[in-house]
Protein: Aldehyde dehydrogenase (NADP(+))
Amino acid sequence: MTLAGKQLIGQQAVTANGAAIHAIDPATGETLAPAYPGGGKQEVEQACALAWAAYATYRGSSLEDRATFLETVAAEIEALGDTLIQRAMAETGLPRPRLEGERGRTCGQLRLFASVVRAGEWLDVRIDSALPEREPMPRVGLRQRHVALGPVTVFGPSNFPLAFSVAGGDTAAALAAGCPVVVKAHSAHPGTSELVGRAVQAAVAKCGLPEGVFSLLFGAGREVGQALVADPRIQAVGFTGSRGGGTALMATAQARPQPIPVYAEMSSINPVFLLPEALKARGQAIAEGFVGSLTMGAGQFCTNPGLVIGVKGEALDAFLAAAGQAVEQSTAQTMLTPGTHEAYQQGVSRLSGHPKVREVARGQAESGPNQCQAGLFATTAADFLADETLQHEEVFGACSLVVECIGPDDLKRIAEALEGQLTATLQLDDGDLEAARTLLPTLELKAGRVLANGWPTGVEVCHAMVHGGPYPATSDSRTTSVGSAAIQRFLRPVCYQNLPAGLLPEALQDGNPLGVSRLVDGKREA
Amino acid sequence: MTLAGKQLIGQQAVTANGAAIHAIDPATGETLAPAYPGGGKQEVEQACALAWAAYATYRGSSLEDRATFLETVAAEIEALGDTLIQRAMAETGLPRPRLEGERGRTCGQLRLFASVVRAGEWLDVRIDSALPEREPMPRVGLRQRHVALGPVTVFGPSNFPLAFSVAGGDTAAALAAGCPVVVKAHSAHPGTSELVGRAVQAAVAKCGLPEGVFSLLFGAGREVGQALVADPRIQAVGFTGSRGGGTALMATAQARPQPIPVYAEMSSINPVFLLPEALKARGQAIAEGFVGSLTMGAGQFCTNPGLVIGVKGEALDAFLAAAGQAVEQSTAQTMLTPGTHEAYQQGVSRLSGHPKVREVARGQAESGPNQCQAGLFATTAADFLADETLQHEEVFGACSLVVECIGPDDLKRIAEALEGQLTATLQLDDGDLEAARTLLPTLELKAGRVLANGWPTGVEVCHAMVHGGPYPATSDSRTTSVGSAAIQRFLRPVCYQNLPAGLLPEALQDGNPLGVSRLVDGKREA
Structure:
């Protein structure tokens, strides 16, 4: 399959004439063909007009049709075969097994949403029966369901070229909810984006859906993205990326005549608390698990464990020694982009040059371009608490800071000082339960997900997952970007009062023709 | 019971020293004692500090304790007896039966939320079992529940001194969710607010809850309200009132270092579509029902039917004649405040002076202060569509505009031109079903609630209610301010991954000790 370097607008492939973006192979520094001339106002207008037109039909599509569409997208992505994996490898420097795994996750995610659409829990059907005899006033019947918010625009990050990108979590959730999607491709993997975009286009055609259900725009800089968020037809935004990028979109969304929700997943340092008994009993194993999580994929995960907190003493010293040794043995890995590598180098330099921070270990260096040499640093609780930059700054990549506490009270103090996080982790043994119980209420307020005896990397796509958390981890802690509950972010409730049976949407009709779970007069009917 | 004119901060009654507010009896213009000296930064600081301290305990209170607390608030409000009704009558000009009904609704609402808390649907419990044998990677167990967002600040409107005020819908929903509440009292009914605030204070004490669960602040101007919304401990805002007031709070909430959600219910003109067959068959009855809804409570409802759309012809002429006659016979009613009356007069003047609008009828005039003389006006679809001010401007009070369409296509055109609404109503007969089916998809996108053959005033407090809708009807169409689903606006999800049984919150424990509905491996267990 030859890459065309064009905007995918509905079923068309359109040549734009803005400044072009080029993918770069981060392992070699080589520029990859083709060029992707950037879109502008015209392409945004076309994509949004088609999305709005498609919305009327698509949001009313049957559960079965919509589920089949999601499954068809998955099949079309798989049908791209090794072309997709090879292009993604070239554009990201990520190794084959990782990308094959990510493709599996992406397609599994689309199929999970297909099952979610069919089950119909997301409709949140509520029926309050008419009470014609009620005193002093009778009650007419009221019924509620959820409907699609409207066309959604999605911005993916560089680090998940498949699972959070063109047909990733936000796109799958929005399509599942009945929202057309306009994706702004990440400029680091345009070829991967085009391939997946064409797979979605093909699925739209095969399923006979209106073409505006999906478009994919390319563009250097922020013009296309900002224009999409400002467009009156766009009704919600999904974003994964930097805090600067997310807050810029939030500002645009709020400044619209009609403000819209922005779901931005931004930054997190993912604290790990090493509780004393666990540290004493299995510090070596914890150190190995930690460094495995830290260095996996060059640490380029939003759930990378960037902060470790333990109480100073022999056990923590042993942990530091073991972790340091593992870091030293870790080989360099190619980072996603020159920009990511540059930012990583700056972040590591800030830590190594910080007067209150000491270097514990650095990983193996490598002479090629964009190599991530892992870094492990340490500081004291007092110094950490005294310096907000240490508390707030995510170094994106394989870099972590160990905070040495004087006593157990410091653990709580540090938990309380943290900003909102995607995750918080406890390493604990039976003897640590009381200490964990003390920390847990604070961690619940700081993070969307609390883990025990695991590592935050590797986000399961399931029903109970929360990949979210208080600001600035995300812009909206009331929702998740991974897992089936993500469908809810693209829905709103509508109440139908006293509507004749002939006008009621199928989900709300007597006899429950869709067979969905309903709350009838306050009682759950499974 | 003597009114003290003090801020209620936790269990204390505190004399503030800011500019005082005084209630005014709108029927007489008389100033009512006592004065309420306004609070300032110090009172905001105290209330927020107490709320934050209470949050840790209160959010963890048992479902039964929290439900009992809500029921105790209801009982304490009822125990105020006629003192409450008399003071509310004096402060609002609303008649006794209306206020007695509103008290019933307020207490019923608190008891509904008690039942909602006990049922535990709001926890949205999700359990994904561990899959230790899964290939290529095992899965650990993941469980999700919802937790309280944090302390909430509530701003009530003037028109529901009980049901949307100190212990109204937002307060009840937030308390049900486990959030402490700091209410900024509406300056039009400070005495009513104090009485209800003391009832809540008493319930907090009786139930042995931390005092910061509830505080009530008074203040002239916007200082106290803005300081509350800017306070870092406040995590969400409930507001009912004007578009200007709501958008000012939204701006403050967005400008915080940590932005927070604002649920502002602002403005709506609540279109009513008169479909041809219904209009022909029962225009007279529809006209009477319409004017009853229009003039009830001097039209001072956010769901007041401010816009009526029908196709020009004999039937619409007959409707207009009947409605006009009913309006002419309607007696004047005292409005809530001099400010409300002033704004109403200005709104009516804008319509009566509008070159494209004709006056159909005015109600009876009355010489006392703040009298609402109902107004019915008419214009053409073309003129309506050509003038955004006619489309957007709510005249708060008994005033409505009838839009005469040339043909049925105009109905849809007008529906599409409208901003977001709380409600949209269809008057229809069997022969109108096809026309209704054409309109319905547009109405669903414009309104939170779609009604047939009823009137939008009289919002049922139940499970299926949506009192919400797209901007500018509210700031957040994903939620409702009336009905049991309102609890969701004050919650966020947390995922617990691989937590030892001894650390799991009760809602998530094996054996389902709370007996709540759960989604287990994607299957609903009622």
Observations:
- Chain B touches chain A through 82 residues (CB under 8 Å).
- The domain at 271-452 of chain B is CATH 3.40.309.10 (Aldehyde Dehydrogenase; Chain A, domain 2).
- The longest helix of chain B spans residues 96-119.
